[in-house]
Amino acid sequence: MRKLLTIVFIFQAFLAFSQKIVWTENFKLNWSHFRSPQNTMKTDTTVVSYSSCGLKYTAYKDKTYNRLLIKIDATFDPSKSWKSPSKTKNLKINHEQGHFDIAELYARKLRKEFKENVKTEKDYQFKFKLIYQMLYGEFLDYQNYYDKITKRGTDTAKQNELEAEIKGQLKKLEAYRN
């Protein structure tokens, strides 16, 4: 019995550690969410933190109305997100939150494209995957642009400017939030 409880506890801890966080309006990142013990950006010693943000979608058939639905989420993966504890001790987390917000921005763009262009399963097969690939490429480019322009959050003026820009874009696409 003790072995079984130990296995269940380890499995639950693994699930809690590895679960991705889905973006919501009221949720804000904090440094405790960065749980990777290793710097995934080892080649760049100037990096003090890394946010593993992404886009996830699930397609399914609504049997009641016989239509295709796609759930699209912006995600943050704590198990792949890293920080330097000594360098982030007194550092604001707004730059990393910006990365998560950018993921939500592109999730909204995907939801908009889906609503406007994907009506059938055939559309899903031929249109959605291409749209996803195109917007995912733009998402990655914007993440890199964000880091470059803000100098990874160290240029306060540019950081504030881009934060406002991202919030404005999120507001414009508010109709497409989850």
Could you characterize the architecture of this molecule?
With 178 residues, the protein is an alpha+beta fold. It has one domain. The protein is built from five helices and five strands. The strands form two sheets. The protein has a three-stranded antiparallel beta sheet, covered by helices on one side. The protein has a two-stranded antiparallel sheet with strand order 2-5. The relative contact order is 0.14.
Distance between the termini: 42 Å
If strands are numbered along the chain, what order do they take across the biggest sheet?
1-4-3
- Oligomeric grouping of the chains: single chain
Computed Rg: 19 Å
Name the beta content range: 5-15%
| Total helical elements | 5
Order of helices and strands: HEEEEEHHHH
Number of strands: 5
Contiguous low-pLDDT stretches (5 residues minimum) are 3-17
- Into how many domains do the coordinates divide? 1
Largest sheet properties: 3 strands, antiparallel
Helix and strand composition category: alpha+beta
Mean pLDDT: 88
Tell me, briefly, the overall form: elongated
Question: What is the share of helical residues?
Answer: 40-55%
Summarize the structure.
The protein contains 5 helices and 5 strands. The protein has helices at residues 2-18, 85-88, 94-117, 121-150, 156-172, and strands at residues 21-22, 49-50, 53-62, 67-76, 82-83.
Which short descriptors sum up this protein?
5 strands, elongated, single chain, two-stranded antiparallel sheet, 178 residues, alpha+beta
